[in-house]
TrEMBL record:
InterPro entries: FHIP. Residues 14-37 are annotated as: Disordered. This is UPF0518 protein GJ17503. Residues 25-37 have a biased composition (Low complexity). Keywords: Membrane, Transmembrane, Transmembrane helix. The chain crosses the membrane at residues 367-390.
């Protein structure tokens, strides 16, 4: 019955994010060769036993970026718009670079960028990526790719997903990684994506929430730096962002991107709600999060209106299959899709009240009374049978209070 039981908040805090990156099987549309090292790595699974020459991996990584950057420079406006072959070529090179990064990161216990007096960097490919500002160059080029922009964005999200899952919080402290990450997040606000893009975006946001839960001191990066990045953009999506900002200019970019998925069904909705609960838990540790959610986001009214809408879809009658039936059971919930959705929404609201900051908790309870109990449940007393009404009410009360099953 419950998404929270199959994908619980507690699992988010302990799971090892090892999501694999599905690599493209297409070849480079520009005819450029690929290194034998990267080719060999792609032919077998990558694990702790993967044997590779670090120098060869580094040389291959640099070569692939040089070839990709040549394509980017040739296809930058106003010279000409990127073609299908240009995009395919860049994505193909990026695919190999991701493979090499994955091997390198897998063999590093943690990402440790070198200092002036330190030994050679333990992650030279990663160091090269940051020093050459690869992520920012890739993002800026992606904005010019027209109808191929979503395909490029998808590959960028896969790359960030890989880096965040393997390096945890270390990379968030470095501007060459954080700045383009905030740019791609900010440019995603107000956009409607296809399912594969939505999935990658929500996975990345979920991973960021897990990292922030364990590193609360990094939260301010996604309040203030995100706003600064928005001012640097000139795309239409940023006009949407500016128009939706509150008077204080506060914007918790991760949370605001997750809100549209709060009532989504399927795995995307499950992961989004999991991440939203992590944000709610963060509000107990950081008052800025609590203030933003309670005063500047639409989270509480959205939860209540969704709950009311789902309640209105519940059946007006219950078909009794047994003479001793006296209450709604978990089996009944499973067999009635509308009731399943309603109970999932109620469970999420209940979880929010349990883990959120006092400001959020009080606001949600007030909205529940003013926006659900009075206008929805009140009229329902006159519209459905007493048997159905009390069955639904007792089911809700037993669930919220944790009594019975």
């Amino acid at each position: 019955m419950s998404w929270l039981r199959s994908s619980p908040l507690r699992q988010s805090l302990t799971r090892n994010s090892g999501n694999g990156i599905p690599f493209l099987s297409s070849t480079n549309g520009n005819g450029t060769g690929v290194s034998s090292t990267a080719t060999a790595l792609r032919q077998r699974p990558i694990d702790a036993a993967t044997d590779c020459d670090p120098r060869a991996c580094y040389d291959s990584f640099c070569k692939h970026w040089q070839q990709a950057y040549e394509i980017i420079q040739r296809s930058e406006p106003p010279q000409r718009l990127p073609s299908h072959d240009d995009v395919l070529g860049v994505v193909s090179h990026l695919d190999f670079m991701v493979t090499l990064l994955l091997v390198e990161l897998h063999h590093c216990n943690k990402v440790a960028l070198p200092t002036a007096d330190a030994a050679p960097p333990p992650a030279p490919c990663l160091e090269y990526m940051l020093s050459e500002n690869l992520l920012d160059k890739l993002y800026e080029w992606g904005r010019t790719t027209g109808r191929y922009a979503d395909a490029v964005r998808l590959e960028q999200l896969k790359l960030y997903e890989l880096l965040v899952s393997h390096s945890r919080h270390q990379l968030l402290c470095h501007e060459p990684f954080l700045r383009p990450l905030l740019k791609i997040l900010a440019s995603s606000q107000g956009e409607i994506f296809q399912a594969d893009l939505e999935k990658r975006l929500v996975i990345l946001l979920n991973q960021l929430c897990v990292v922030l839960m364990q590193n609360v001191h990094l939260l301010d990066l996604f309040f203030f730096s995100a706003e600064q990045e928005q001012h640097k953009q000139t795309t239409n999506s940023d006009e949407i962002q500016r128009s939706s900002r509150n008077n204080s200019g506060t914007n918790f970019i991760i949370f605001s991107l997750l809100i549209p998925y709060v009532h989504r069904e399927g795995s995307i909705g499950h992961q989004a709600r999991d991440a939203l609960l992590l944000c709610m838990s963060l509000s107990q540790k950081n008052s800025n999060v609590g203030t933003y959610i309670a005063q500047y986001s639409s989270m509480c009214p959205l939860l209540v209106t969704g709950l009311g809408g789902l309640y209105s879809r519940l059946p007006n009658s219950i078909e009794l299959t047994s003479i001793d039936w006296h209450r709604i059971t978990p089996d009944d919930v499973t067999e009635i899709p509308e009731l399943t959705l309603f109970m999932n929404a109620l469970e999420f609201c209940n979880a929010v009240v349990q883990v959120a900051h006092e400001m959020i908790k009080n606001q949600l309870l007030d909205f529940l009374y003013q926006g659900f109990i009075v206008p929805v449940l009140g009229p329902a007393i006159l519209q459905v049978s007493i048997c159905v009404l009390f069955s639904h009410l007792s089911n809700c009360l037993r669930f919220v209070c944790g009594v019975g099953s």
